[in-house]
Amino acid sequence: MHILATEGLTKRFPTVTAVDQLTVTVGPGVTGLVGANGAGKSTLIKILLGLLPPSGGSARVLDLDVTARGADIRRLVGYMPEHECLPPDVSATELIVHFARMSGLPRTAARERAADVLRHVGLAEERYRPVGTYSTGMKQRVKLAQALVHDPKLIFLDEPTNGLDPRGRDEMLTLIRRIGAEFGISVLVTSHLLGELERICDHVIVIDAGRLLRSSAIGEFTQVTQTVEVEVDEGLDDLAAHLVAGGQAVSRQGRLLVVKVTGPESYDAIRDATAELGLCLIRLEQGRHRIEDVFRDEVAHV
Ligand SMILES: Nc1ncnc2c1ncn2[C@@H]1O[C@H](COP(=O)(O)OP(=O)(O)OP(=O)(O)O)[C@@H](O)[C@H]1O
Fold it and tell me: In this entry, which stretches build a coiled coil (predicted)?
């Protein structure tokens, strides 16, 4: 079953083709849409919501055609836009109750629904304060709440971690995973950071200049580009030389060595090398992928 599907989807602006012959399908669960700034992620989401007409090709969301059924799609889909768009002088409660009423709920049900949704996204007492006084993290939560308030089947989250500090990012990612897992709402979430999406997604789509670069389940993804990061107190160069001599693919990133994992023997090689050299191992951690890894990988396959 697909929650959305595009076929040769294209969007041309006067000076740039933002979405270029994109054919892709998305199933239920949490799907990451990854691409550098300007890759076409926001444009794709606006087309899928029926807010921008495509220049060519077609797309269906929840089996509804985006050109003919935009209003029906927006009734079933929640949207968290990338940029700040909240009125500063109302409280989160007032705003979310307003959105709930706009979705058709009567006054009392709208209040209850708004309270539930604000609790789910983690806004407590501060929900009575004007939005203009909120931190970026709190504003992102309000934007998420308005995307959820009409009980959608699917939500589009455009760069929900933008502007957040590392802790805020972690909390937002955990929240998104919960929405997918506990509430059974399918999620399409964009980011320019592949590393953060692979933690919470079942499936990842990578686009570049509006074109599909890769679409695969997260398991296949990590298998192909898996790395492990190694930190030792001193002797990093010796360790690198030892591993390379033993046939491992190694690169250096500041105080870390990044070793490409080809199988369990890669971990054995790191263990043996640190033991033989008598080094103190500080950290051994699964590497976070970057979009560049996918590009490198695609080039290697050509
Ligand atoms: N309304 C528009 N008119 C003209 N060009 C546009 C318009 N909207 C987007 N573009 C261009 O289309 C390309 C894709 O933009 P888009 O915003 O979809 O990318 P993105 O992947 O979401 O990146 P970002 O996260 O930086 O917004 C960019 O080159 C952008 O300048």
Answer: none
The amino acid present at 231, given as its one-letter code, is: E
227-286: which CATH topology? Alpha-Beta Plaits (3.30.70)
Q: What is the percent of the chain with per-residue pLDDT over 90, rounded to a whole number?
A: 72
Could you give the CA distance from residue 121 to residue 213 in angstroms, rounded to a whole number?
Answer: 33
The predicted complex's ipTM stands at: 0.96
CB burial readout 88-118, b (16+ within 10 A) else e: eeebbbebbbbbbbebebeeeebbebbeebb
The reply to whether ligand 1 has any atom less than 6 angstroms from the CB of 183 is no
Residue 40, pLDDT above cutoff 70? yes
**pTM, entire model:** 0.81
- Return residue ranges of the chain for CATH 3.30.70.980: 227-286
State whether CATH 3.40.50.300 applies to domain 4-221: yes
Q: Which residue's C-alpha comes closest to atom 24 of ligand 1? A: 37
